[in-house]
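Reviewers of the previous submission asked for a worked example of the structure-prediction workflow described in the proposal, so we include one complete record here. The input consisted solely of the amino acid sequence. No template or homolog information was supplied to the procedure at any stage.
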Amino acid sequence: MRPARFPQTRLVAAVLALASAPSAARAQAPPEDTAAVLERALAAHARGDLPGAIAEYTALTLSASASPQLRARALFERGVAWGQMGDTDKEIADYAALLQMPDAPLEEKTKALYNRGLAWGKKGDPQKAIADYTTVIDLAGAPVEQRAKALYNRGLTWGGQGESDEAVADFSLLIAMPDAPLDQRAKALLTRGRIWSQKQDSEREIADYTTLIGMSDAPADERARALFGRAITWAQRGDIEKEIADYTTLAQMPDAPAEERAKALLNRGVAWDRRGETDNAISDYSVIVQMTEAPAELRAKALYNRGVARRQKRDPDKEIADYTAVIQMRDAPAEQKAKALVDRGAAWGLRQQAAKAIADYTAVVQMPNAPVPERARALYNRAVAHNQKGETARAIADYTALIRLPDAPAELKERAARERDALRARASPTPTN
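From that input alone, the workflow returned the following structure tokens.
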């Protein structure tokens, strides 16, 4: 029995119908859930896939089915992503587009204005930044948090322009806002205190720091910085007892940043030194040296200061060991390494080890990034060491190099000139009759 055969026209029609079925289904499919697109974009943004997030945000801004709220959110988040990619112009363009939307939510417009102010600041246009912050501050119904942040940043911008009175006025408005977030009020108190310091108004400076220190629920890092600032001011006023007390309180704060605690210990060590309490100073420096979480710069300073303190205790072995530890620190600042080399050289000299002393001074002279004062000290000390060894020509050469060194301390140059002239006079042959 033969299989049934369809007419050719009917077969072609059936094939065409089957081929067109998927496209028809696609045409009738509902549009993708725009909320799901936003979630996908935010997830990409959170994991650092900025190009992928921008693509999803862009799809939302172009979607006819996206609500005004979603399109406004997409524009804002895309602006943030452009900013994170370093494209400030596109960032500002997205915020501007959002602000031109008549139906965008007030909260999104406020955030866009604030962020655009930040972006203008990055572009070096403080006047436009101030204008956007001012709009946020004056915007009826703007969230309190955004108004507080705008006041703080407008104050910072005024300060950067040298307009300290306007800066103080903004910080004062923020501090007086009863519903402003606590962290914003704390930052305003700290920054206003620093402005009072610049204005040499220590009474108001201390008052602001004291208010902040007394806010037990303020962020620990802001309270720690206020304690440190107040201690510095006590030192400037000659009140070493209150200075040490503030450093002690800060050093004992369990939730203070490690850097602030290390700075407090370092400065307290210096204060102990000023009082002649060398053992207490060494103890504080030793704590910092063991703080692995402290910045390398502070640990290097503590090691160097401990070496100086051990010189006062006439303990040359430990003194040299501390200087050596600084010199061998891979991440120690050049200034600390140079100072340690000069002082270790001096210690070798006291132990009659002139070759080691000269080697350390030479290392400083040859350091391309050594500070000028340390290079000058190294040249002077090397000249003295050469002179003690009877190497008059080398001593004269070092004195001459120091005298010609730009920006070297004037007093050291004058001393080098006198000693060089004396050496030259002794080296000159005595005339005979």
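The CA atoms of residues 196 and 204 lie 6 Å apart. We consider this example representative of the routine output the project will generate in years two and three.
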